[in-house]
């Protein structure tokens, strides 16, 4: 992982601000903690598929800290997944099998 890749990932999530620099020594799959500005009126992204220059695909998953009442089903703030209205829609798809956006 290098700073350019970290900034690329952070900017896919929102607007990259900074990150823990110790994370630059980590490899794919290791947690990376960064500060990113996001529009909380939009659903927060939970995953992103990234393709490396040699064609390998990796899925980057996002975990948010210090955000109580974040729904990991719809990505909105204000409720948790247990109470998400998406559960009551006929076309509800379990997030485990939902396709990862590119
Ligand atoms: Zn929800």
> Which ligands occur here?
zinc ion
Distance between the termini: 20 Å
Strand order of the largest sheet: 1-2
Number of helices: 1
Largest beta sheet, briefly? Answer: 2 strands, antiparallel
What integer value in Å does the Rg equal?
15 Å
- What percentage of residues falls in helices of 4 or more residues? 10-25%
Q: What is the average of the pLDDT values?
A: 83
**Which stretches are poorly predicted, pLDDT < 50 over at least 5 residues?**
none
Strand count? 4
Give the overall form. globular
Alpha-beta classification:
alpha+beta
Determine the strand fraction and express it as a percent band. Answer: 15-25%
Secondary-structure element series: HEEEE
What does this protein structure show overall?
The chain has 102 residues and is α+β, with helices and mostly antiparallel strands. The protein has a domain at 3-64. Helices cover 11% and strands 19% of the residues. The chain contains 1 helix and 4 strands, in the order H-E-E-E-E. The chain has one helix at residues 3-13, and strands spanning 15-19, 34-37, 47-51, 57-61. It has a two-stranded antiparallel sheet with strand order 1-2. A two-stranded antiparallel ribbon has the order 3-4. It starts with a helix and ends in a 41-residue tail after the last strand.
Notable characteristics:
102 residues; alpha+beta; two-stranded antiparallel ribbon; two-stranded antiparallel sheet; 19% strand; binds zinc ion
